[in-house]
Sequence to fold (806 residues):
Amino acid sequence: MEISKGRISLAILLMVAGTLHAQQVIVNTVGKDPFVGKTTEVVYKAKEGTWTFQGFNNAVIKTTYKPADYSRNEQISDAVTVKPPAVGTKVTVAQSQTVEWDNLTSVVVQREKLYYKTGKEVKVKSASYFAQGDTRGFRFQLFNDEQIFGGGERAVAMNRRGHRFNLYNTASPDYGLGAENLNFSVPFFISSAGYALFFDNPSKGYADLGLTDKNTLEAGFSSGELTYYVVFGKNLDEIMANYSSITGRQPLPPRWVFGNFVSRSGYRSEEQVHQVVGKMRQDNFPVDGLLFDPSWFGDNVKGSMGNIDWVNMQKWPNPKQMLTDLRTKDNVKSVLITEPYILQNTKTYAEATPFLATGADGGPMMVPDLSYGTGGLLDIFRKQSQDFIWKSYKKQVANGVSGWWLDLAEPEKHPASMMHNLKDYGVALPMGADEVHNVYAHYFSKMFFEKYSSDVSDQRLFLLNRSGFAGSQRYGVLPWSGDVARSWAGLKSQPLVLLGMSLSGLPYIHSDAGGFAAAEGADPELYTRWLQFAAFTPVFRPSGTTLEEPYKSIAGNYTKLRYQLLPYNYSLSYDQAVWGRPLMRPLYYYSFADSVALKAEDEYLWGDNLLVAPITSQGATARMLYLPAGKWYSLANNSVTDGGKYINQPADIKQLPVFVREGGFVPLWFSKDTIKSTETFNSKDITIRYYPSAYASTYVWYDDDGSSTRTLERADYELVTFKGITEGKKVTIDIATNNPNQYGKKFKRTFRFELPVALAGVATVNGKPVDAGSFGKQPDPFQQLSNEFLTVEFNGKPVKVEITLK
Fold:
């Protein structure tokens, strides 16, 4: 970075409000002595506007620019909930103006350009403001070898450099590989140079990531406060932790989120619903949820959207009893679809009229070109509108509904001339559609979350929503990837879309497994490959195709594997809720140093211990895949492969390549009875599969009751820590808990330590030899082989287990 030789004038005016500690520092004229003290913000008055810098205790810097000629400074985003604290700050004048915070992050102002540093290293360079027509925004100079990730839903390569994206949530039916603009835009971009940029502006805009100029990242917006955050971190894990510390982390979902969901088009009667559930049980498919499509509120979606109630009482004679029976007799949760549009002549239209978004004349604005008829859009930004729609939802919750499926909430049709009322959020003037479009679904999710917190406080929210904004994860959203084509191009796009969203802070992204928009003719191979992949994604929601053999049995095996992995999968929700870790993680999640891993973008880590390589090519019987350094065990047959290289892995239609990292612990759920749903899960009796390694490893397993709210706040959970190492023929595993007080005469755990290698039948627990009856063999229906195990009773006190291998 060049440094100006001329001394730059600097003065500091301290705004002291009856206290000795400065809260604001203003930089504007000559000053020789540095300022040292606590600040909440540092202001620099430039030639044509004002820069404000705010440091956080973690490695985050907030920057806001207010141009002198700009009046649309409304901030309607609530993406960031944390206010900058008073932090130790040093402002100095050398050959440039420098603001440095206690965490050793700093911003340097030089010739109207900004440079952001950690320690002495410049991470973000030549940041500047620009105005072009009605667009305002920022430009940044990129390093030559820099890669850029994130940005929300984009069906393109993980490295988004060289693309220009719209920042405008867009429904894109029948999309496949190459679709750049989809339902969920998040203006959060991560650099392989060790930083991220979050543009906290939800207005219609764009992000040019080196397309127009290969060395420039440019983000422009049509309205709103001009603010961005620089988030530092040496790897993705640190960046995601720092970003989620200001935008929030996903609350714990109900455990049944990790079950199987029946999701098909056309449940047209109570009789059909019972037939579908009965068929699933008959075929031994476990199931936890059933999604009711628009037929629940009308025989024909045209003209019925907005009823928000059961209408045909011949086909749905007793909805409350049906929902109760599904929940209590079948252990199946019911999820209802809903939309933000209220069509004319529907059951709620007359009452809804005052709560609809308006036109320029102040009256309700009708949208005539909806696929389902003519109607208005609920103005979700008004508290009265929220109360109106919640009244209908609350009625269905009382009937026994367990979750919601919010569709079309981009909004799919949102005329630019439509106006919204945000007075309840402190904005005096009406705002146009383009100013609020990207946070419409976000505020709808917020409404659900807040209403559940106040009115249904004993339930964890289940909310599918295909659109939103940064911070939507705080409201418990389970986004799906929109109307992806039921094609091989559609499938190929999904690992990229899901990983991109995972790196954008939305950890429960998933797809309609099998695709949504149907191509001509059914393709059982495509559907089977999609289900195999979906079994290792946050939500497993097959999208309704009937399979014949052999595909039916293969789909059944992976559905049952999903349940077998329940204790492992549910633990991932704790990693997200506490640390901000996505459930799906690219191979380079902990280091950008592996250049090969950076290119292996159609593989991913499911948690830390499982590596998944989806099959996305028709007729494939093998695929090339990259295994990072170390030894990797096949989940299917326990074979061991050395990593640090590409391998050609066999993968006939029965096999999805999945590998377990050496040293990995994988908790599993086995049951003597047929598993029908997560409702029968027993966390007191768990198999812990350990994959031996000469390197010490640690795994923390999370457990709670799977349903109670405020579980983390009340510390009503348990963390069991397993530490393992293999030295020659001896495996040593240490067990400890954070919550020993819950153990006693009525509570203990049984752990079956299963190893994918032969045991010698000799072991000790806390130095005492175990008897032969503690050993056994357990069949694994997925692997179709048996693994040896050692049973250990755990009563909350530390345990050391030593197992001898053959």
Remarks:
- The radius of gyration is 28 Å.
- The chain has eleven helices and 51 strands.
- Residues 1-21 have pLDDT under 50 and may be disordered.
